[in-house]
C-alpha cells in the first residue's frame, strides 16, 4: 500500500459512499480532527440525537442554560465513547484545551465551553457531539482503498448552516464526482 501523508485528512470531510455496509456510518459526513501514524479521529456532523438535548447534558453538570437554548440539539459524533462530549466550533473561540484544526474550525472537549455556550459567551457557531469515530493505525487507509469513503474539502457552511438531512448529499455534490461512474468496491483476485 502506498503511503498517505499523515496530515492528509485533517480538516477534511469523509463522506460515506452510497453502498456503505456499516449501518453506523451509512449516509454520514465525518469531519476529520486528527489523522496520523497512530490512527484517525473524526466527528459525524449530520446525525442529530433525538433522545437527548443540550439541557439534558447541562443539568447534571450543574450548568444553567439560557431558555433560548432549549432547542439546541446534540449530535452522535460516532460509535466510540458515546458519553464523551466534543464541541466542533468556529475558531474565534479559543481557551486552554481547545485544539485548532484550521483557520476556521477548532474542537474543544472541556466543560468550560459548555458553560460558555449556556451563558451565550461561547463560539459563534458550534456543533456539540457525543462520542467520536476512530480508526486504528492504517485502518482508515484500507477503508479508503476499498472505496468506502469519499474525501471532500470541508465547508464551514455545510457544518453549521446546512440542515442535517441535506449534508450528505451536499457533500457529495461538492466533490464534483459523478458516483454513477465509479466502481464502488475493489475486486479481489
Radius of gyration: 17 Å
Q: What would the principal axes of the Cα set say about the shape? A: globular
Q: H/E element string?
A: EEEEHEEEEHEHEHH
Distance between the termini: 16 Å
Q: Say how many strands there are.
A: 10
Task: Name a few traits of the molecule.
189 residues; alpha+beta; ten-stranded mixed sheet; disordered C terminus
Structure description:
The chain is built from five helices and ten strands; from the N terminus they run ββββαββββαβαβαα. It has helices at residues 54-58, 111-119, 139-145, 156-161, 164-174, and strands spanning 12-16, 29-36, 39-44, 48-53, 73-76, 80-90, 99-100, 105-108, 126-135, 149-153. Strands 1, 2, 3, 4, 5, 6, 7, 8, 9 and 10 form a ten-stranded mixed beta sheet that branches. It is globular and about 50 Å long.
Quick structural summary:
This protein is α+β, with helices and mostly antiparallel strands and 189 residues long. Helix content is 20%, strand content 32%. Strands 1, 2, 3, 4, 5, 6, 7, 8, 9 and 10 form a 10-stranded mixed β-sheet that branches.
Give the topology, please:
Elements: E1 12-16, E2 29-36, E3 39-44, E4 48-53, H1 54-58, E5 73-76, E6 80-90, E7 99-100, E8 105-108, H2 111-119, E9 126-135, H3 139-145, E10 149-153, H4 156-161, H5 164-174
Parallel strand pairs: 5-9
Antiparallel strand pairs: 1-2, 1-10, 2-3, 3-9, 4-5, 6-8, 6-9, 7-8
Amino acid at each position: 500500500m502506498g503511503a498517505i501523508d499523515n496530515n492528509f485528512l485533517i480538516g477534511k470531510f469523509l463522506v460515506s459512499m452510497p453502498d456503505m455496509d456499516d449501518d453506523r456510518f451509512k449516509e454520514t459526513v465525518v469531519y476529520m480532527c486528527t489523522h496520523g501514524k497512530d490512527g484517525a479521529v473524526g466527528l459525524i456532523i449530520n446525525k442529530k440525537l433525538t433522545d437527548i438535548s443540550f439541557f439534558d447534558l447541562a443539568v447534571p453538570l450543574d450548568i444553567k442554560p439560557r431558555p433560548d437554548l432549549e432547542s439546541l440539539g446534540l449530535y452522535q459524533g460516532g460509535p466510540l465513547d458515546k458519553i464523551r462530549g466534543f464541541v466542533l466550533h468556529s475558531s474565534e473561540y479559543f481557551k486552554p484545551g481547545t485544539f485548532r484544526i484550521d483557520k476556521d474550525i477548532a474542537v474543544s472537549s472541556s466543560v468550560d465551553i459548555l458553560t460558555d455556550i449556556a451563558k451565550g459567551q461561547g463560539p459563534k457557531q458550534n456543533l456539540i457531539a457525543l462520542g467520536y469515530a476512530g480508526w486504528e493505525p492504517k485502518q482508515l487507509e484500507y477503508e479508503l482503498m476499498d472505496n468506502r469513503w469519499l474525501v471532500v474539502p470541508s465547508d464551514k457552511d455545510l457544518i453549521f448552516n446546512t440542515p442535517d438531512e441535506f449534508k450528505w448529499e451536499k457533500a457529495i455534490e461538492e466533490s464534483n464526482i459523478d458516483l454513477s461512474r465509479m466502481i464502488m468496491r475493489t475486486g479481489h483476485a
